[in-house]
Amino acid sequence: MNDASKPSDEATSSVQNAVALAYQAGSSAPTVVAKGKGLVAQAIIARAKEHGIYVHQSQELVALLMQVELDKNIPPALYRAVAELLAWLYHIEKQRDETTPVTPYITTAKDNLKIIP
Hints:
Pfam families: Bac_export_2. The protein is α+β, with helices and mostly antiparallel strands. It has 4 helices and 4 strands; from the N terminus they run αββαβααβ.
């Protein structure tokens, strides 16, 4: 078998999961707006990239967020972790363009993951 016909590590790894979160100013907490496994996760990630939305990888956070129902706020137990991620994202966005508002983000992971937005 030549190198071109060998499956990539990514193709043979466990199913990928993705969660998309959105936060509106004045809301009590970020909301899970999309989540999925496999092809759905790939579509979520592709759509985020098409729209210039940052994709963050965190196996642990994805595992926790996958347990949140769609269109529901994240639980209080995750406020700190998500707030730290949003603060970091805000910093990145501000450096990139002072006029660009914070965008929703996607968290992705592989191997035994459960996810959020």
